[in-house]
Specification:
two-stranded antiparallel sheet, 41% helix, 11% strand, globular
Length: 399
């Protein structure tokens, strides 16, 4: 996609439409879809829409500073690019493109275990603030090797995703018969034929691989078992003691992703987690689970300022970032927002997504009379009656 066309994508939703237009439907559905009825997927976005802003006026907002400190280091935005798997199936080299876009703004980038780039490739081609997101594999030797490689490659953080003991039931993938490696079948032939540029590239150059999972049991869709393509190799017995052993081995920042219940916070802080991510896996695991914005304030209150709390899920606008900050988040992680950018236009598309979010965040700060991130407090929000009591009880108060 040309830069001129990307410039016409003035919102994340426009980037989403551009990505959808160039990908076969089963591939787009893999990135877009959620679990079962996709209630949580939609609710993640709707939670932001239910919250209203209450701007202050007659403030000097001629200069706005959106710089933040994320895990002790400066970033140009209160944002990290979160882990997204199989990106190279949507845009060849997409993982590297996302990492480079993040590095350009001093933002952390989290590489997924199921990425189509290796730990070392990212470190060599896109040096910056790198986190490695480790799925808890049943193959413990493989998991230990991946963690050791991330340490040797200089990754500053290890992210452990704890909301994936088993794979969610992703019915779009089941309906499309999607497996990895992706295959053209009589059932999906015409869907791939409608996107000849993507299909010919995969046919001639062959599909990418997932280096961190290479050699493991082949993952296919299983309609009889009603399992999705995710979670086949993950360990459902992983518990707090197992996480503590990883903490003992990893000497740098440990980030725990997938926390939504305040009762889980104390033990995670106690074992030495350096940051928590309020996440429901983008609505791709447990359907009808709580929206992350609705869960945020309870986690912030339980953390009590001892560790920073990030949020992912449903972030599509700069105003969404603003609302998360007002409710106590130290920053957000983007998943689909930056993914749509890279799927639409590679590195230029990823940068475009970040530019959109930065422009919208700074514009929201100006329109709300808050020139610095520290000015964004609870009193700029109007919370709907339908939100959980934990938000009203624990929402960040004005400083």
């Amino acid at each position: 996609m040309s830069k001129a066309v990307l410039d016409e994508c003035y919102s994340i939703d426009r980037l989403r439409a551009a990505a959808r237009a160039r990908l076969p439907a089963p591939v787009f559905d893999f990135f877009e879809g959620g679990a079962e009825d996709e209630i949580t997927l939609r609710d993640n976005m709707d939670a932001f829409r239910r919250v209203r802003l209450v701007p202050r006026v007659l403030r000097d907002v001629s200069r706005v500073d959106a710089r933040a400190a994320l895990l002790g280091r400066a970033a140009q935005l209160p944002l990290a690019i979160g882990p997204t798997g199989a990106v190279g199936f949507g845009w060849r080299g997409g993982d590297v493109a996302l990492a480079r876009a993040a590095a350009g703004l001093d933002l952390p980038y989290a590489l997924s275990t199921s990425a189509t780039a290796s730990i070392e490739e990212i470190a060599e081609q896109a040096p910056g603030r790198l986190w490695f997101q480790a799925y808890i594999l049943q193959d413990k030797a493989r998991l230990d090797d991946l963690v050791g490689r991330a340490l040797a490659a200089g990754y500053e953080g290890l992210m452990i995703t704890v909301d994936l003991p088993v794979g969610g039931k992703r019915e779009r993938d089941l309906a499309n018969g999607l497996g990895f490696p992706m295959k053209i079948t009589p059932r999906n032939f015409w869907q791939f034929a409608r996107r000849p540029a993507w299909s010919l590239d995969m046919l001639v150059r062959r599909p990418p691989v997932m280096p961190s999972l290479a050699g493991m049991k082949r993952v296919e869709s299983d309609r009889k078992a009603m399992q999705s393509v995710a979670g086949r190799n993950y360990d459902p017995s992983f518990d707090l003691a197992a996480l503590a052993r990883i903490r003992d081995r990893w000497p740098r920042r440990l980030i725990v992703k997938g926390v939504v219940h305040p009762a889980d916070v104390e033990s995670l802080v106690g074992l030495g987690a350096d940051a928590l991510v309020v996440s429901n896996h983008g609505g791709r695991q447990l359907d009808t689970g709580i929206a992350t914005l609705d869960a945020l304030s309870g986690i912030v209150a339980a953390a009590g300022g001892r560790v920073p709390v990030l949020l992912d899920g449903g972030v599509r606008r700069g105003s969404d970032i603003y609302k998360a900050l007002a409710l106590g988040a130290a920053g957000v992680m983007t998943g689909r927002a930056t993914l749509y950018g890279v799927l639409a236009g590679g590195l230029d598309g990823a940068r475009r997504a970040l530019d959109i979010l930065r422009d919208e965040l700074t514009r929201t700060m100006q329109l709300c009379g808050t020139p610095a991130l520290a000015d964004i407090t609870r009193d700029v929000l109007s919370l709907p009656h339908g939100l959980p009591d934990s938000i009203r009880r624990h929402a960040k108060e004005p400083q």
